[in-house]
Amino acid sequence: GESVGLHLPTLSVQEGDNSIINCAYSNSASDYFIWYKQESGKGPQFIIDIRSNMDKRQGQRVTVLLNKTVKHLSLQIAATQPGDSAVYFCAENTGAGNMLTFGGGTRLMVKP
Amino acid sequence: NAGVMQNPRHLVRRRGQEARLRCSPMKGHSHVYWYRQLPEEGLKFMVYLQKENIIDESGMPKERFSAEFPKEGPSILRIQQVVRGDSAAYFCASSPPNGRGYTFGSGTRLTVV
Predict the structure, then answer these.
(1) Which residues pair with B78 in a beta bridge?
(2) Which of A5, A108, B45, B90 yields a CA-CA distance of 20 to 30 A from B79?
(3) Regarding predicted confidence, which is higher, A100 or B40?
(4) Pick among A46, A57, A98, A106 to test the B interface (most B CBs inside 10 A)
(5) How far apart are CA A77 and CA A71, in angstroms?
(6) Rg (chain B; Cα; Å)
């Protein structure tokens, strides 16, 4: 079936560097995408979202890019900090209901 | 403004017992969703509810699992006759009707021994 997937299970970066976390989706009907951050023992925390009529959206230190041609989503974190260490999930919504389909997650490790 | 409240945070049950997980949505949110997460995996959708109404339960196992969201009180996810494979983190989320502004609770970690 169609699903959301991620390229890299673990990403290790130096503090202060930029991080890029990637996500591939296969459901062309998806019209809404969200990135979540999940720290150990906690629930997913909303980071940023983007609708399919956009290709880029920026927040504070984070940018989400959407490439509908290749069905690719990425999260860029500028000046990565130790507090950014967590597992990051992308999720998609097809618009047929409010349910989200999650990817498998990427663990971001920030080295001081 | 309190977020999504789940309780208990941790729940231990012996095989064959019942587990009841509670979720109170954010103020102003009328829709509740339950997801299950196994270690090192993403969240998997289980069920989507409005007050007194199940909208979509396509992710719920056919047996032993049920969910409700009564007119008064929290949403309840009920697992009867638990087995070790039910051990997981169960997350509740809530949203307004348009599904935007999804907010998750801190989860209930169920351990079946």
Answers:
(1) B20, B66
(2) A5
(3) A100
(4) A98
(5) 20
(6) 13
Q: Kindly give the confidence (pLDDT) of every residue in chain B, 113 residues in length, as a single tens digit, with 9 standing for 90 and above.
A: 579 999 999 999 999 999 999 999 999 899 999 999 988 788 999 999 999 999 999 999 999 999 999 999 999 999 999 999 999 999 999 998 877 778 999 999 999 99
SS3 content of chain B, % helix, strand, coil (to 5): 5, 50, 50
Asked if the C-beta of A102 comes within 8 angstroms of chain B's C-beta atoms, the answer is yes
Q: What is the pLDDT of residues A36-75, one digit of tens each?
A: 999 988 999 999 999 999 999 999 999 999 999 999 999 9
- Tell me how far the alpha carbon of residue B94 is from its chain's centroid: 10
Residues of B with CB under 8 A from a CB of A: 4, 31, 33, 35, 40-45, 48, 55-56, 59, 91, 95, 98-100, 102-107
**Which residue in B41, B45, B98 is closest to A100 by CB distance?**
B45
